[in-house]
Specification:
Elements lengths: L1 H5 L6 H24 L9 E2 L2 E2 H12 L10 H9 L6 H24 L9 E2 L2 E2 H13 L5 H10 L8 H20 L15 H13 L5 H9 L14
Antiparallel strand pairs: 1-2, 3-4
Helix pairs in contact: 5-7
Length: 239
């Protein structure tokens, strides 16, 4: 019996049940970490039928010896450390804030079908354009965590690809969105001006870029969303 005690044998039924219940929660947290590369879980997250966010918060409280909670055992701390548990409250708060901003970016993409965001755009109370610029900068500096890159890629694989055209064409894409919402199509005459922009001429030139295989895929996807009628591509082979 002494040898069994030394290797952590549980003798009481309730202790065995608590251990099994904890392990079930842990395995669920481990699966979440494998999928998302982080244990920064948004509030009220139900994962595989388990309120994972509440359970993670409880483990942090237990590690701090918060009144009314049973302290974590060393083996539990070790297991949580193995799947990237963050114990520091400041870091947790920063990661939760980042996740909230990322959700905001996701909502923007769902609404506008694009991450071509005009400068100083405030969306859901967040300067989402400045935030996205900062993420691109951190990525290029090698300072963006893998789990954050994964979440941004899940929103739009082209989130990092900003170029000069993005800056120049933002007003036109915004005007095109307004035209579409007003008319239900973008069959625009070449000489049409809209919102003080030569929108028809700009759109015609994008069709020409497409025909000549010079239009980037991200722009093609945006314009496809509006049901654009492309010009037939020119063959690259000589007849």
């Amino acid at each position: 019996m002494k040898q069994l005690d030394e290797i952590g044998m549980y003798w009481h039924t309730q202790t065995i049940r608590n251990h099994a219940r904890w392990m079930k929660h842990f395995e669920n947290a481990s699966a979440y970490y494998t999928e998302h590369h982080t244990l920064t879980v948004p509030r009220n997250t139900i994962y595989n039928g388990d309120n994972l966010s509440n359970w993670i918060a409880l483990q942090r409280a237990r590690n701090r010896n918060t009144r009314g909670t049973a302290p974590l055992e060393p083996w539990q701390i070790e297991k949580l450390d193995s799947i990237g548990m963050i114990w520091d409250g400041t870091t947790v708060w920063a990661d939760e804030k980042w996740t909230k901003n990322c959700e905001c970016l996701k909502h923007y993409k769902e609404l506008h079908h694009s991450l071509l965001i005009p400068k100083n755009t405030i969306f859901e109370g967040i300067n989402i354009s400045s935030w996205l610029i900062l993420q691109r900068k951190k990525f290029r500096q090698g300072k963006l965590a893998v789990w954050k890159i994964d979440q941004l890629n899940a929103i739009d694989a082209a989130w990092l690809n900003a170029d000069r055209s993005d800056e120049i064409w933002r007003p036109y894409f915004a005007a095109l969105e307004r035209y579409y919402l007003k008319h239900g199509h973008i069959d625009i005459d070449r000489n049409t001006n809209f919102d003080d922009l030569p929108l028809g001429r700009w759109l015609y030139y994008r069709k020409c870029d497409y025909r000549n295989n010079k239009l980037k895929l991200k722009y093609i996807q945006i314009l496809d969303h509006y049901g654009i009628k492309w010009l037939k591509k020119r063959s690259s082979k000589k007849e």
